[in-house]
Amino acid sequence: SVEPTEPGDYKLCFDNSFSTISEKLVFFELLFDSAQDEEEEEEGDEAEAWVEAAEPEDALDVKIEDIKESIETMRGRLERSIQVQTLLRAFEARDRNLQESNLGRVNFWSAVNLLVLVVVAFLQVYLLKSLFEDKRTVRT
């Protein structure tokens, strides 16, 4: 989290010096909530002042402005919800791909282990049988 201290342009730098061989996946998100929250608080204070100071014929205009403010607030929150859902879908897709690749590796090594287990079982049976075979020749 970074709180901007000065107005202006900011740059993001992602460093890959730790390992240039392995693959990396980077997610980042830009949120501009603090400025919006402050505006909502200021608008709420202004709306209360206008309601108290409004004359009866101006009450209808104030109500329309309140409705417009409510709609704008709702629109901002819906946009934020869409942004969060998009981010969650990206995380879910990344995690699903990781799980599918892990499933492939687990299945491969399970098959290898099963094959080794079967070969060792046959070798043990063969060795045990060879121990009990009578190799002497019988003369009659």
Task: Give a quick summary of the entry.
The chain has 140 residues and is mostly helical. The chain contains two helices and no strands. It has a domain at 65-130.
Overview of this protein structure:
About 5% of the residues have low confidence. The longest helix is centred in the C-terminal third of the chain and has 74 residues. The chain is elongated and about 125 Å long. The protein has a domain of about 70 residues. Helix 1 packs antiparallel against helix 2. It is mainly alpha-helical. It is built from 2 helices and no strands.
**Rg over CA atoms:** 36 Å
Helix content: 55-70%
Find the count of extended strands (DSSP E, 2+ residues).
Answer: 0
Largest sheet: none
Low-confidence stretches: 35-39
Content-based structural category: mainly alpha
H/E element order: HH
Ends distance: 95 Å
On the 0-100 scale, what is the average pLDDT? 79
Count of individual helical segments: 2
Principal-axis shape equals elongated
Beta-strand content: under 5%
Membrane topology: Single-pass type I membrane protein
Main location: endoplasmic reticulum
Keywords: Endoplasmic reticulum, Membrane, Signal, Transmembrane, Transmembrane helix
Transmembrane segments: 108-128
List the helices and strands and how they pair.
Elements: H1 33-53, H2 59-132
Helix pairs in contact: 1-2
Main location: endoplasmic reticulum
Membrane topology: Single-pass type I membrane protein
Transmembrane segments: 108-128
Characteristics of this structure?
140 residues, mainly alpha, TMED1 protein, GOLD_dom, transmembrane, signal
